[in-house]
Specification:
single chain; 375 residues; alpha+beta; Endo-n-acetylneuraminidase fold; four-stranded mixed β-sheet; 11 helices; binds 2-acetamido-2-deoxy-beta-D-glucopyranose
Length: 375
């Protein structure tokens, strides 16, 4: 807490360099793990008035921007409007993560502290991989869309596709600017990662896998022209996939993620970018991961019980499905500890009728629902 205040003070005084030193000398361990620190800006989204104002002076007052490094803050200043897109993309990614994992022991828990995903981020398991991939996908997705909506001053629709595309259609209209999104996300998201080790390569690989999933699922959309819907001519543009589709793809990749090791291929020229040639499957009979595959290097914990040290919450209190044999079933979700059953009265609006004009009246229907919760 004191460090946040220091950071804001330092920002106010324009002492950015001094601030970095101050923070790292004061907070000890906190400064060690910078992985994904930019996620802390998720809290900036709640102060909408700060977001709509593109004057830097206001922006630096928000303490959650202290989670960004100097390069990231510069990128925000250079691209007015982009902070809102990043924060919105991060929100979408978190929502999607929770939805995809709602039936699993690890259900993508988040906290209100700047380290929103908790300690899972410092591990190297599948869940870590998913968090990196989905959040970097969230950024490219939101930035590419915001460009085409005119919400970012430094980018527009992607107008590079022009002219005839086929016998009865031509390129036109406003394509989502996925190239700008990718470029920005690489600079912004990847600059949180430091080091040359396996963890670093893996985090960057998973960031890129998220971006690749978004850009390779771009779809062509068309609009008909011509006499009363005759569709003799069509205008087409490229549209982003829905974020649900991105989440579905990444969830599949989570299930099929590759466990990798660092391949020391005798290259002593350390590269700045993640070099996929340095990651190879731990099991030599598996094929090497593609750029869209998620990679990890350590087994996941079982997520059954609370562990302060590893940051797992456990499944006690989670709602389970007593008739399912799958992961959401009480047996597996509760890790064999058993469950308690409660009945709840639930009142819902029902038998709604529309009255001209204009209101709707409903009755209240009460039903009892049975709820199972893990012990
Ligand atoms: C930082 O990450 C390392 C793993 O690289 C972990 O062992 C350590 O507990 C982390 N520290 C904090 C403060 O999260
Ligand atoms: C519980 O599991 C059963 C069997 O898989 C399924 O048909 C049902 O829809 C599930 N109920 C809920 C509330 O998810
Ligand atoms: C339904 O319940 C709400 C509040 O629970 C109440 O305000 C409303 O009057 C009820 N409607 C009827 C038709 O009983």
């Amino acid at each position: 807490m004191c460090c946040d205040i220091m950071r804001v003070l330092a920002l106010l005084l324009g002492m950015k360099a001094a601030c970095v030193l101050l923070v790292s000398s004061l907070s000890g361990t906190g400064a060690v793990n910078n992985s994904g620190r930019w996620w802390g800006i998720v809290n900036v989204a709640s102060s909408a008035n700060l977001l709509t104002n593109s004057k830097n002076v206001q922006l630096v007052l928000d303490p959650s921007l202290g989670q960004l490094n100097r390069r990231q803050r510069r990128l925000i200043r250079q691209n007015p409007g982009i902070l809102h897109a990043i924060a919105a993309g991060l929100h979408t990614a978190i929502k999607e993560c929770k939805w995809q994992f709602r039936n699993r022991r690890w259900n993508c828990p988040t906290t209100h502290s700047p380290a929103i995903f908790g300690k899972i981020v410092n591990r190297g398991c599948r869940e870590t991989a998913f968090v990196f991939a989905i959040t970097s996908a969230g950024v490219i997705h939101a930035v590419a869309r915001s460009c085409s909506e005119g919400a970012i001053e430094s980018c527009t629709c992607d107008y590079r596709r022009r002219g005839p595309g086929g016998p009865d259609w031509h390129w036109g209209g406003c394509s989502d600017n996925v190239d700008f999104g990718r470029m920005f996300s690489r600079e912004f998201v990847d600059s949180s990662e430091r080091g040359r080790d396996l963890r670093y390569l893996i985090n960057l690989h998973n960031n890129e896998a998220g971006r690749m999933t978004v850009s390779s699922e771009m779809r062509q959309e068309c609009k008909c022209h011509g006499m009363s819907g005759s569709c003799t001519v069509r205008t087409c543009w490229m549209r982003l996939p829905s974020f649900r589709a991105v989440g579905d793809f990444l969830k599949d990749r989570f299930d099929g993620a590759s466990r990798v090791v660092y391949a020391n291929k005798g290259s002593n020229r350390a590269s700045h970018r993640a070099d996929p040639n340095h990651l190879e499957p731990e099991n030599p009979s598996h094929k090497p991961p593609s750029s869209r595959d998620l990679v990890y290097f350590e087994k996941s914990p079982n997520f059954c019980t609370y562990h302060g040290k590893t940051g797992t919450h456990g499944t006690s209190g989670r709602t389970c499905n007593s008739s399912s044999m799958a992961l959401d079933g009480c047996e597996l979700l509760c890790c064999g500890r058993g469950f308690k059953t409660q009945t709840e009265k639930v009142t819902e609006r029902c038998h709604c009728t529309f009255h001209w004009c204009c209101h709707v009246s409903c009755l209240n229907c009460t039903s009892t629902q049975t709820l199972h919760q893990c012990l």
